[in-house]
Amino acid sequence: MTRRMTTQDASFYYLETSNTPMHIASLAILEPAEGGLDYENLLRLVEQRLAEVPRYRQKVREVAWGLARPVWVDDRDFDITYHVRRSALPQPGSDDQLHDLVARLISRPLDRTRPLWEMYLVEGLAGGRCALFTKSHSALVDGVQSLEIGQVLFDSTPVPREVPEELWMPEQEPSGSTLVVGALAELVARPGEGIAVARNALGDVAATVTETVDVLGRLARTAAQSAPDSPLNAHISRSRRYAVVRSELTPYRKLHARYGCTINDVVLAVLAGALRYWLLSRGEPLTEATTVRAMVPVSVYVQDADSGEGGDAIQVRPQGEVSSFLVDLPVGEPNAVVRLSHIAHAGEAYARQRRRVAAQTMIKLSGFAPATMHAVGTRVATGFSQRMFNLMITNAPGPQHPLYLAGARLLAVYPVSPLLKNQALSIALTSYDGNIYYGLNADRDAMPDVNVLTSLIHESLEELLDAGR
Question: Domains in the chain, ordered, with CATH?
Answer without folding.
Answer: 230-467 (3.30.559.30)
